[in-house]
Amino acid sequence: MSARRVRRRLVSALMTGVVGALSLLAVLALVLILGHLAVKGATSLDWSFFTRNPVPVGESGGGVANAIVGTAIIVGLASLIGLPVGIGAGLYLAEFGSGRLGWIVRFVADVLNGTPSIVVGIFAWTWLVKPMGHFSALAGSVALAVLMVPMLARTTEEMVRLVPHSLREAALALGYPRWRTSLRIVARTALAGIVTGCLVGVARIAGETAPLLFTALGNLNFTTDLMQPMQALSLQIYQYATGPFEEWHRLAWAAAIVLMGLVLLLGVAARWAIRQRHGAAR
Amino acid sequence: MAPPVDARLELEAVRLTALYGRRAVVTDVSILFPAHTVTAVIGPSGCGKSTFLRCLNRMHELSEGGWVTGQVLLDGADIYDPGVDPVRLRRRVGMVFQRPTPFPTMSIHDNVAAGLRVNGRRARTDVDAAVERALRQAALWDEVKDRLRSSALALSGGQQQRLCIARALAPEPEVLLLDEPTASLDPAGTQRIEELCHELKGSYTIVIVTHNLQQAARISDYTAFFYLGELVEVDRTEALFTKPAAERTEAYITGRFG
Amino acid sequence: MTVLPLERLAAPDPRRQVLRGVNAGERAYRGILTVLAVLLPLLLVALVSELVASAWPAIRRFGLPFLWTSVWDPVAGVFGAAPMIFGTLASSLIALLLAVPLALGVAIFLTEFAPAWLRQPVAFLVELLAAIPSVVYGLWGIFVLIPFLRAYVVPPLRAALGWTPFFDGVFYGNSLLAGGMILAIMIVPYIAAVSREVLLAVPPSQREAAFGMGATRWEAVWTAVVPYGRAGLIGAVILGLGRALGETMAVTMLIGNRHDIGLSVLQPAYTMAAAIANEFSEATTDLYLSALFEVGLVLFVITVVVNAAARLLIWRVARGTAVGSRAL
Fold first, then answer.
1. In which domain, by residue range, is B147 found?
2. Scanning B189, C1, C81, C122, which has the fewest C-beta atoms within 10 Å of its C-beta?
3. Taking all residues of chain B, what is their mean pLDDT, rounded to a whole number?
4. Are C1 and B24 inside 8 Å of each other by CB?
């Protein structure tokens, strides 16, 4: 009896160790990836890396200024398109989403959320690139916006629903029309959460590559023309990483640091925004 | 039994029935609230007294499936008339809820000003004066006058409830509906609110739903007893508490049920 | 309280009906939001119809056998997607085999065993794995993971299991194993996050009951908590599967991109997403392009089915609450 008891305790202790070790392993993966990024890329990060455009194969040096600007433009435009639609759809779901249309929109948002980004990429190609006859930054932005909207709609809905019903009633009893209640009181109260959702969404699309492959395409030159092919950091990393040249690999690591830094920055901003909310609710 | 008709008839429900879908939670209630009086609505939980109150400013119809039959007359005009905008109506009939509901993103000042702004009153001095007046009426001015710009959430529960009363008073409604306003407050906070009711009835017609019979006896001129969605009895408060006409009323106020 | 007889309610006075949207602002607000919301279904309709229309020539030409024939010959104009479908499923299966124990371990550790001060930081770090862009995983895979596999993992694997068909052949680096492993790391944060929320939703009474019967901590977790949340945990795993199936860049960079069905995980393979990414811009004939669209359509349908299944399972555990929606 007591031997069995000891054995059971040992199993319990052992399994505690196992799940702890598995957690350590997961964290280790993160540390390794970020560590390699830092080690392999940091030495290439200098002023010219940020300010110069790529140079032809054979010459050394060169930078990713075109890709940094390209990512900023493509992601910025995608946000400009995606944020209003996503937030608006989310508000609709939270305010008027109890009926049949609400059910459909919610279901569709979930389906779109699970859609592989490469599928969205070829969709954007047939929709924009093919009729226009050429690749363009605009098509890339639309593809990214399509990825962003369903996610944003669902997080916005969730955040707005967290606002206590009593606040809504208080505003209505004060003679607020429903729409002003929704905007001035409910959405305003959920603002920190909505902003967090937006930042997470932007961070997610900033790192996307697949939807840009056949839309923004990439461009070795600097351009700000929305109707032309445009480079993005993610595309550049892909091209450099899969290319045959040592020099390209070095630049790929450096570009990856920049992209990772951008995504982490947005993530940190999101955490900060959510903290603001908790601060306000104290 | 009916209240005397010396007062101007301010608010009156006529054969009012409130429903959720097909289910009636308030059945065929007719009652009159004279101007500048406090009427307490009492009854056991689930007797429909809160729903009844929410019919008086058309909040009930905002609940899922909520609708009413009958009339509610404010100054003789039916508030359920198709020409009446419920949003405008609610600016004439203020309401305070069971739990304090300050708007968390707004300062103390902005909370009180919220109902003014939505009414289109935006001139700064005008708003500031109205905010001060409302806060003084709600007996909160002295406690918050130095921190009008700080968050309303920093106030205590009792202060928050008085802030909500000030917020309801600022647009100068004609009727004030209080839905168990002291239910979540400590005795000191409760006492402040009760004193407030006394002071406010000079300018407003007040209907207060309460669980607390002593409270009803302390602050109201008239008391209405609801049971199972029906108005059992309404009378002057002393009369209702000393010699109730209905047996169910007597059973309730003597604590035999509810 | 009283249910009124129907005849009294048959014709409620219309003016008593709820008057929503009585003024212009109200209507405008609702109208604008409705238009924005309706954009989503329209988008889905556009997406599906474009995919079907573009894939139609291939669908008509090859019919259902497209799904199980394995010749992919752009020159001859013959296309069968079996190798990609196989590769997609195989790489995702490998990813699940590796990721599920890891992610469940993390979730159990974080909800049941970790000291309070450790929970937030570890959860944050694991979630951070989801923030790393796919292309960065691919980069890391090419230059770190594959050399590591070649030096330290594949030789002992071959020594021990080389006689099975699963570890047969020469290891060139880009392979099913490399693709599956990178996928595993990528889906761990999703499975872990949803599993954690599922385990947190298990009522404490389940644990207490087990402790009351003299169970050790592990026994309480394994016999009470995990079975209670089983449907949700399976949902979390299927959700991870949905992610793995549609993942593109990292896999494209690591799996080797060869149209072959082979059992050995050391050999190159192909996935549907990778095929589109690789060949779309090279598709010179309309039929070739159409075949790639059909691959995209198949991929879309599979992920929709898988995600719907995951969602149903998660909802069963925590009906009405938004469990896992953050990771979706």
1. 9-253
2. C1
3. 89
4. yes
